[in-house]
Amino acid sequence: MPGFTDEDELYRYIGGIFETALADPELSPKLRSTGLVLRQQCTDPDSALIIDLPGAKVWKGSDAGAPEPQATMTMSTETANAYWQGTVNLTFAMAKGKVKVDGTVTKLLQLAPLSKRLFPTYVERLKADGREDLLVTK
User: Fold this and answer.
1) How many Cβ atoms from other residues are within 10 Å of residue 74's Cβ?
2) Cβ distance 21 to 121 under 8 Å?
């Protein structure tokens, strides 16, 4: 299963679904109310996003001026790609060491049910860009 080639792809696809969600009048207030600033740290290749939910902004991990995250989720880009398609059970992935979580776990857990609403948007974005190579087949 493939992952992303660089931080720009991570930002385009995963950052992009958060930008779309933060612009949604129904979903944005729920995301912002979590108060969470999340770092999505990926390996293979090394890349990161800072998702500032209360500030409604997504930063590349390499951007200067990004806020300090309260929680960090670390995984390979392959796992991140699969997770945002809804094919990775977060609890099992954490137990198997495929996903590591540091920081304010309670706020992260508030985000989990909301993140499921982003899965279809993520898959649609991949399809719209002709990125069938990133689609996970069940």
Assistant:
1) 17
2) yes
Q: Within a 10 A sphere around the Cβ of 38, how many other Cβ atoms?
A: 24
Name which of 91, 66, 69, 88 is nearest 79 in CA terms: 88
The pair phi, psi for residue 125, each rounded to 5°, is -65, -45
**One-letter amino acid for residue 111 of the chain:** L
The pLDDT tens digits of the residues spanning 72-90 come to: 999 999 999 999 999 998 8
The structure tokens 């399809």 sit at 127
Scored b (16 or more CB within 10 A) or e, 6-36 reads ebebbbbbbbbbbebbbeeeebeebbeebeb
Tell me how far apart the alpha carbons of residues 45 and 53 are, in angstroms, rounded to a whole number.
Answer: 25
